């Protein structure tokens, strides 16, 4: 997934820089939002990124679901990759990732280019601002997104696999148990909830070690990740 995200960012960088070359540079006082919308079709970029990510997510779910069967001593070939839950997950999730990622890229571009335009910068200076945004995307954002979304897909597949197995009734949160475990994940280690329940619901506020809190306002948390770059996993709790 990491390399696919980087390729998408590379394509987007080429598109945006190409538009800068062929579109008159806005003058100070120009409405940034209108100009950026004119030169970049984010809807098309969303669709293209979703198209690329969908089969990758399905592959992660298929592989992890089979491993989930093996964890409970069942034949991995029995894992059904083509049921409705999985089809819905990878299609919707790929679209959401694409939109979330591109919305953030657009936000960063707007901020950078707005500053440059208001400062009366040349097209070469504006290009440098675009390079700055996509440089960070290629190095830092792509890695963080890939790690987080692979973990999310693996947790979904674990839960789906254990549900299909019929021999698992709960799931246990398990951390890496090293010095890098964060103050929020550490107190979750060993926590068990029913297989179909969430550890947290969207909108919850969780207090970790030292009284620090995290607002879980992105989505429900049925399993890892709790946050970006989370390294936690789930373990099955078998029916007694």
TrEMBL record:
Which superkingdom, per the lineage? Bacteria
NCBIfam families, alphabetized: phageSPP1_gp7
Q: Which InterPro entries match?
A: Phage_head_morphogenesis_dom (IPR006528)
Could you tell me what this protein is called? SPP1 gp7 family putative phage head morphogenesis protein
Task: Cite the Phage head morphogenesis domain residue spans from the record.
Answer: 108-234
Question: What Pfam families does UniProt report for this protein, alphabetically?
Answer: Phage_Mu_F
């Amino acid at each position: 997934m990491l390399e696919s995200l980087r390729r998408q960012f590379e394509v987007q960088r080429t598109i945006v820089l190409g538009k800068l070359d062929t579109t008159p540079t806005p003058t100070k006082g120009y409405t940034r939002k209108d100009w950026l919308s004119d030169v970049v079709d984010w809807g098309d970029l969303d669709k293209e990124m979703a198209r690329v990510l969908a089969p990758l997510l399905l592959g992660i779910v298929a592989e992890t679901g089979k491993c989930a069967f093996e964890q409970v001593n069942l034949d991995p070939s029995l894992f059904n990759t083509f049921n409705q839950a999985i089809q819905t997950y990878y299609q919707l999730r790929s679209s959401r990732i694409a939109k979330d990622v591109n919305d953030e890229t657009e936000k960063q571009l707007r901020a950078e280019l707005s500053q440059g335009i208001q400062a009366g910068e040349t097209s070469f200076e504006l290009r440098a601002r675009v390079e700055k945004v996509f440089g960070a995307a290629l190095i830092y954002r792509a890695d963080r997104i890939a790690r987080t979304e692979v973990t999310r897909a693996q947790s979904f597949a674990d839960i789906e696999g254990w549900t299909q197995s019929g021999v698992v009734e709960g799931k246990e949160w398990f951390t890496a148990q090293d010095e890098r475990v964060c103050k929020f994940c550490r107190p979750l280690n060993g926590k068990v909830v029913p297989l179909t329940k969430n550890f947290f619901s969207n909108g919850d506020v969780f207090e970790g070690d030292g009284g620090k809190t995290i607002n879980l306002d992105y989505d429900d948390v049925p399993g890892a990740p709790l946050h970006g770059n989370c390294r936690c996993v789930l373990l099955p709790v078998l029916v007694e």
